[in-house]
């Protein structure tokens, strides 16, 4: 059974996207859409600044992702978040585990969905951690939302297959999911998000 989300409205929701090319601002003029830039550090900085300023009840992340699961396509919801590039196994920690922190390697907010592993490199071959998707921001955004007691949901458009063709496929496909996300947001909020 899926978790019940707090109401999603322009007033209580912060939408964070890495790049404006993935979700142009004109698609959601009434909503607070923030572009954080690429990578976990940029995502954390922008999420922190904007959560402190706007005090949202829920943070939504939309963006593109590479799929390692051949059955996935289109727009999918993420249910679990990992970081595939946190590797301190030399000190006895599990791959993906942040050293000296409570908890395991997986972040979840109780929503049903696929597994997304984030890292600060563009993936062109499968990481060691089992995952459905790879991106560069979702884990950092989820962890920041958790720190500030915000609910968090992430929706990813499958832009590539995280393989040798990923860079070309991402360039061609990153924009294709915007209309699907706008439609999803309309359904989640119970209103018309379009102009």
Structure overview:
- With 195 residues, the chain is of the alpha/beta class.
- It has a single domain (13-189), classed as Nucleoside phosphorylase domain (Rossmann fold), CATH 3.40.50.
- 23% of the residues lie in helices and 25% in strands.
- The chain has helices at residues 40-54, 138-147, 166-173, 178-189; strands at 13-17, 32-35, 58-67, 75-83, 107-108, 114-118, 133-135, 151-160.
- A five-stranded mixed β-barrel has the order 3-7-6-4-8.
- Helix 1 (40-54) runs parallel beside helix 2.
- The N and C termini lie far apart (33 Å).
- The mean pLDDT is 90.
Q: Give the percentage of residues in beta strands.
A: 15-25%
Q: Rg from C-alpha positions? A: 16 Å
Number of strands: 8
Distance between the termini: 33 Å
Count every helix, treating DSSP H or I runs of 4 or more residues as helices: 4
User: In CATH terms, what is the architecture?
Assistant: 3-Layer(aba) Sandwich
Highest CATH level, the class: Alpha Beta
What's the overall geometry?
A: globular
